[in-house]
Amino acid sequence: MSEEIVRLEGVNKIYQTGDTTITALAKTDISFHANKLTLIMGPSGSGKTTLLSILGCVIYPTSGKVYYKNQEVTKWNEDQLADLRLKEIGFVFQQFNLIEPLNALENVMQPLTLQNIETHTARERSIKALEAVGLGERMKNLPKKLSGGQKQRVAIARALVSEPSMILCDEPTASLDSKSAKVIMSELKQLSQTGKAVIIVTHDLRLREFADHIIYVEEGHVSTSIKNEENYK
Ligand SMILES: Nc1ncnc2c1ncn2[C@@H]1O[C@H](COP(=O)(O)OP(=O)(O)O)[C@@H](O)[C@H]1O
Ligand SMILES: [Mg+2]
After folding, report:
1. Ligand 2 center to 177 CA (angstroms)
2. What is the largest CA-CA distance in the chain?
3. Are strands 71-72 and 221-222 parallel, antiparallel or unpaired?
């Protein structure tokens, strides 16, 4: 069994707005491991982003405990969690979230610059990350000069440059044509095989062929992670 990266114990999330109470996530116990690519699927509004945000230590659960590499991070304060996210967790979003006036290389360098890593080292590592996603020739391009698929690869390079143990993606292929979506998924799959837990929220049934595990979320209820038998045929 590969290393456990993140574990939820009795975690839920309840939003109270006026006199309505929304259970975005019902009480959940689940864990995610290195070297595995997991898909989180389910209808809109079912709690997928809430689950991903708790796994990424972006929001605190209403109750329950989150363990990151066996440390209880629900005890940590906002600053400690910000530091954990910067160093240990890579995020990839549907809308890429690149900084438009910065070129591809400068975008990828951002997380390292924020960690006060020396510019020379940050450059070297960012070049390697861009080469790893096949964009070695595009380093000087501004985002507006890149296709959707290329922008998402820059975003992946930015997510992996800090050598995180976990990569969280929210609908990473939703803005892409199916050919680019396949390229992105193959890259994420490869990344998972380098000792990372890769967790992807998606609506796209075609992505199932890349998954080791699939979990379904419905009205805040998370199914136990099921092994993707398709991969074992
Ligand atoms: N910050 C918030 N305040 C109030 N309700 C929220 C908030 N975030 C999410 N919700 C509600 O929680 C439920 C789950 O949302 P979400 O996790 O975004 O679902 P999904 O990503 O599956 O579409 C929805 O009913 C949504 O309206
Ligand atoms: Mg969502």
Report:
1. 20
2. 55
3. unpaired
pLDDT in tens, 75-106: 999 999 999 999 999 999 999 999 999 999 99
- Residue 28: strand pairing partners: 11
CA 88 – ligand 2 centroid, Å: 22
**Is the pTM higher than 0.90?**
yes
Query: 126 CB less than 6 Å from ligand 1?
Result: no
10 Å Cβ neighbour count for 189? 16
Is the shortest distance between the CB of 16 and ligand 1 below 6 Å?
A: no
What's the token pair of residue 81? 């969690």
Residue with the smallest CA separation from ligand 1 atom 10 is 24
Tens of pLDDT, residue by residue over 186-195, are 999 999 999 9
Strand pairing category for 4-17 and 20-33 = antiparallel
